[in-house]
Amino acid sequence: MEDFMLARFFKKVPAATIVVPMIFAAIIHTFAPNLFVVGPMTAAMNSKEGLNVIIDITLVAVGSQLTFKRLRLALHRGLVLFLSKWLTAVVLGYIFFKLFGREGFLGISALAFIAAISNHNNSLFIGLIGEYGDEYDMASAAITAVISVPIFTFLTLSMLGVADITPNSILDLALPIIIGIFFGNLDKSFCDFLAGTQTYMMPFLGYAIGSGINLSAIFKGGAAGVVLAVLTIASAFIITLPADIFINKRPGWAAISIYTAAGNSVIVPFLVCDFDPSWQAYENLAAAQLGTVVIVSSLLVPFVASLWLKIRKSRKF
Predict the structure, then answer these.
(1) Fewer CB within a 10 Å sphere, N or C end of the chain?
(2) Considering only CA atoms, which of 6, 17, 14, 8 is closest in space to residue 304?
(3) Which ranges of the sequence are coiled-coil (predicted)?
(4) The pTM is what?
(5) Is the dihedral of CA 23, 216, 58, 308 positive or negative?
């Protein structure tokens, strides 16, 4: 009876296999961070290094799905999401900076705003693929993975003359994907095997993501951080959602799911200030607000994507 109730609970929570472990780990990390840290093995599972290993394994699996047979459609879907997200970040970032300057509005600086809308948690996107997507969506995650590093933040801020791009960060992200693409095309059975592993990896990926989330960041970021998270998610509806629906001919859940912020977005203000110390007045507050965006967007986006699909199904548009 208990298993049946648990199964029903999981069915009611959007993307439960990744969201529930993530929330559980975030609560533990906030209130009792050492509860499950017994030795080096458990410490690794609750660390950033553990998350990076799981992400690397996941990216190999993602790359393996980008076979030559799927290449055209996967590239099409991934590039539409990639380019529309980039266009949104550039256009909205430019408008925000021109209207409000560096100080921004409601305590949200231009630095925090651009960093939030130009970042993406590809791990959560992969988790949602298991709930709503297909093998082509899984393959397209190799393209959207590029957004998960702070490249677009630097690209946008470079227009203002304050940032640079690190080639090593691109190579670090691309290498596991390239390895996956190579072996996935070399051996079909390897491709099929890794496609099945995604279902089982998601709870561990969710837990590892949650282990890096401290819910107290919501209080540090304040109400402005929550507002920034809402603005980040709302940005999906301007360019990316219509592009996903009308160009990709897809229901739109993928467009919404790439408007989260990855944990690495929090370090963007510090990196930018290394390039241009004139941003230092906004550094700490922007980092705190981005920490709030990471948490709030990770929790809200699965529910927003699920709600959007229900609306589309009920209204048939």
Answers:
(1) N
(2) 14
(3) none
(4) 0.67
(5) positive
